[in-house]
Design a protein that fits this description.
The structure is a homodimer. In chain A, α4 packs parallel to α7 and α6 runs antiparallel to α7. By secondary structure, chain A is an all-alpha fold. Chain A is 72% helix and 0% strand. The first copy, chain A, is elongated and about 60 Å long. Chain A has two domains: 44 residues, Homeodomain-like (Arc Repressor Mutant, subunit A), CATH 1.10.10; 128 residues, Tetracycline Repressor, domain 2, CATH 1.10.357. The structure holds a DNA duplex.
DNA sequence: CCAAAACGGAACCGATCAGTACCGTTCGCG
DNA sequence: CGCGAACGGTACTGATCGGTTCCGTTTTGG
């Protein structure tokens, strides 16, 4: 645990928010768990909402760095994003995607927290598209959106099944999709 | 609006819970919006948690009845579940799946609300499996889990994209999956 | 070394939370 | 008609919410 108050607040808030939900965690808990004084929180952040946004930005960067590291360690195959997810699903403290959870909790789609969460998902789509391009797959952008959809589906399924099985199923579906030849627009447009 | 207090409570609570989240809606709001007296709520339900469970059970039955009606109206093709979803995604008040949202909000996986939500999802899987069997698809159970995963992925994607496009993408992926021949176990087991 | 910044702790604020108790009224049914 | 159940409204409880203020201590850098 870092000794400066700001980092302790961010680390503690991230843990508690992910484990119990943003709304369920009062600033009181964050203060007692982190050992930070009440005034220090409001010296570093204008309010709880701003702490939430800071936590999400931090988690976005850490999550994407972690995913990129896992995938490159596994050889760079786009499908290995599902193997990385499976590792997360198996952890005892797994409770879904912090950003999906945030979008669900902050009902207002224009709220700062919701927007940061949506940005994260778009960055993941871009990352998957880059992986597909590097692997020589056509229609990288549209396919990336399909794979991101499978990732999110696997995540919410893993939450309720409490097993990593959905990662394998989503990976198999993605493999079938990539093998199903160049279907230009698997969706609505054109 | 029904004139008995219990039905008014359930209808009002369902609307508010879905639109703003369970934790965000206090009983005060439910009472003022529904016009029901405070005491009447606690005459019909031991507490807010029990009202939540009753609302979820009610919504589970209504949702599955609606889905079955739409699919059969569209000819009974399993893929038409995505067309039904697209109709929901297009509605202005669409805010994802009430049961996914509930599982996210009620972090404790053993809480009554979480369990009711998980039951709903399992019933949807069973329903999709039945559709696949009736259409003569092999491996109905495993394939149904993959399709349910695609449905949930489409739902959470639609929340952040704020367009029905993800329903079409998920449908296309499901079509590719069903056409990819009899792959016995697209996942972990066996 | 010493000043200034950073900090932890506690008291306090108004608002809101779920839940209880009691009131007088309205309604349905015999 | 009349009686009892169902009901809406109000006042209240103790707990908790996010946020403010002040004070004394610790830490840090010139």
């Amino acid at each position: 645990m870092p000794r400066n108050a700001r980092e302790r607040l961010l680390a503690t808030a991230e843990e508690l928010f992910y484990a119990e939900g943003i709304k369920s965690v009062g600033v009181e808990r964050i203060l007692t768990v982190s050992g930070v004084g009440r005034a220090s929180l409001y010296r570093h952040f204008p309010g709880k909402d701003d702490l939430v946004v800071a936590v999400l930005r931090r988690r976005d960067e850490n999550w994407r760095a972690w995913m990129a590291e896992r995938v490159s360690a596994l050889g760079g195959d786009p499908l290995s994003v599902f193997d990385a997810l499976a590792e997360r699903f198996a952890r005892a403290d797994f409770r879904g995607c912090a950003f999906i959870n945030t979008m669900v909790e902050s009902a207002d789609p224009d709220s700062p927290a919701h927007l940061v969460a949506a940005e994260h998902k778009e960055r993941v789509v871009s990352y998957v598209a880059r992986l597909l391009e590097e692997s020589g797959h056509p229609h990288a952008d549209e396919t990336a959106r399909a794979i991101a959809l499978l990732m999110d589906g696997a995540i919410v399924t893993a939450v309720r099944e409490r097993t990593p099985a959905s990662a394998g199923r989503a990976r198999a579906v993605a493999a079938a999709l990539l093998a199903s030849g160049p279907s230009p627009n698997p969706g609505t447009a054109d």
